[in-house]
Specification:
The protein has helices at 2-11, 20-36, 43-51, 57-95. With 96 residues, the protein is mainly alpha-helical. The protein is elongated.
Length: 96
């Protein structure tokens, strides 16, 4: 999966005048989502559901989902600043 993000990041180096730039970035981000979704995507929720005993499962899952959404919000706030500081190639490469 990391190679798809690295490829998407390196596609930002293609000149903006090229018609292939946007298509390649979109393609590699789509491939990342296609590999992530059936692989690591559902693992945290499945693991959390099985890690808590039955009588604490609702509280445990609500905590796990809350933490997940909190870090998604942090990522949403931090990424634009990171992209400005490192350029889009560096920001995507950082997460790869």
């Amino acid at each position: 999966m990391a190679w798809t993000l690295l490829a998407a990041g390196f596609c930002f180096l293609i000149p903006e005048s090229s018609s292939a730039r946007l298509g390649l970035i979109t393609f590699f981000v789509y491939l990342f989502a296609a590999f992530y979704s059936p692989g690591e995507g559902p693992v945290p929720f499945t693991y959390s559901a099985e890690a808590f005993p039955l009588f604490h499962r609702e509280v445990g899952m609500s905590l796990a989902v809350s933490i997940n959404l909190f870090w998604a919000a942090v990522l949403t706030v931090v990424y634009p600043r990171l992209a400005n500081a490192l350029t889009p190639t560096g920001a995507i490469g950082f997460f790869a």
